[in-house]
Design brief:
mainly alpha, 11 helices, globular
Amino acid sequence: MDFSYSFAGLAVGFIVGVTGVGGGSLMTPILVLGFGITPVVAVGTDLLYAAVTKTGGGAVHARQRTVDWTIAGLLAAGSVPSALAATLLLRHLESIGRDVTALINTTLGVALVLTALVLLGHEWIKRRGERTTFEARAPRGRTRAFATVTVGVVLGALVTISSVGAGALGAAALLFLYRDLSAVRIAGTDIVHAVPLTAVAGLGHATLGHVDVPLLSSLLIGSLPGIYFGSRLAAGVPDRVLRPALAAVLILVGGRLVW
């Protein structure tokens, strides 16, 4: 048990509680750049870490009935098979002796920059989503369902390879596609969808030997109280300050991983 990892989990959990941004955007870069954990182990461990932490959040949203199960199911219909396919791709690359570190670093860096852009453009995305032409009725409803599954496919591959994307990017896509969905239902649906996605992707990495169980335990010891206290203080921290600051950090880290 290494309590420096627990402290990192505490810090990330606190930030997630305050901002609502997914832990993968912060935890994986910290493990790779701060602690020197290999990218494959950082991603695999972070995915199971996310599955555990998001299960608690998803249960709360389910009890509060702030989950659209149809939309979550459509996302999962695309993301879970995509996560399995991405796992098989990683397995194949490793079986032929390819180093997947460069692939993971590049994908992680791009995902972090995209997440940062979503944070900066949150209000614009929200306004754009309110003007979307998608409607709930068929035949456009079928088009929207297909688009939702397609978003799931992209998220499944991105999350499996980088551990980033299930939170901010998933919520941004829902803002575009579902103008009639309230902010709390978007958050609840996004979190519930992330549970099977991160679990499947994390277990896939575990079969490849990419999960460090003691590291996972240390992170959870710190993150669970961090999320609790961060959530309690969230209302007192101005969003207009947090989002740009966090976005700037993600852009710097993402650029460092890509270049």
